[in-house]
Amino acid sequence: MQKKISALLPGFNCGKCGCSQCEDFALSLINGKKELRTCPVLTRPGFAANKTSIEKLIQKQIQNNNHNIIAGVIDNYKADIFLKPLKNEKSCRETLLPFCTIELKAGDIIKYRPLGCPITHIAKIIDIQHSLITVAIKGPDNDRNFENNAVIDVGICMVLAFQGRYEGKTLKVGETIRFLPHHCMMQKVHSGVVVQLEKEKVRIEIIDLKVWGMPDTNSDNPYISYK
């Protein structure tokens, strides 16, 4: 897209738009940091056709961006990725640190409330490593769905990690990202640090229900202007 717009710009590199080169101006147009009218050359009659073509390309880019947006419902925050369950599983995995002293084992069905989340979860324990337990979410607080299994109430737990498959932007190990878990009933964007990548699989740790920055409440699409 940048090359197509650059080819339609005057190519004078005059700097009057605030960019040193027309290629930089093309990128600023795509990112929404500059407006087309800031190029004085495009206002000339000889560049009218080019200006119209650039406007169409920018509009197409905006439509594509809107289609690919991943955003939370409760806060209108934009997410970098959508976190999906691992293959043959129904939800993303969570690694929990329970505050209780109840003896647990793999296969147990537990009921807990993540610290900072108002919704109680029900999950099956997949693995236990020292005091950390890895679970797969089975549903919200509804014991009747598990009449054949005793549901163990472990109280409040701290969620330390998520694991699943992802779709969205390309990730790098060590970067802090915003993500929307597949099973989150509140559709709330979480944040965390990418610690492991394997093809389309990712493990995110240091989980936080808060995200940085604020949405643009003056915009019709608040998360478009997210910074």
Automatic annotation (TrEMBL):
<keyword id="KW-0411">Iron-sulfur</keyword>
<keyword id="KW-0004">4Fe-4S</keyword>
<dbReference type="InterPro" id="IPR011005">
    <property type="entry name" value="Dihydropteroate_synth-like_sf"/>
</dbReference>
<dbReference type="GO" id="GO:0046872">
    <property type="term" value="F:metal ion binding"/>
</dbReference>
<keyword id="KW-0479">Metal-binding</keyword>
<dbReference type="GO" id="GO:0051539">
    <property type="term" value="F:4 iron, 4 sulfur cluster binding"/>
</dbReference>
<keyword id="KW-0408">Iron</keyword>
<protein>
    <recommendedName>
        <fullName>4Fe-4S domain-containing protein</fullName>
    </recommendedName>
</protein>
<dbReference type="InterPro" id="IPR007202">
    <property type="entry name" value="4Fe-4S_dom"/>
</dbReference>
<feature type="domain" description="4Fe-4S">
    <location>
        <begin position="1"/>
        <end position="56"/>
    </location>
</feature>
<dbReference type="Pfam" id="PF04060">
    <property type="entry name" value="FeS"/>
</dbReference>
<dbReference type="InterPro" id="IPR051069">
    <property type="entry name" value="ACDS_complex_subunit"/>
</dbReference>
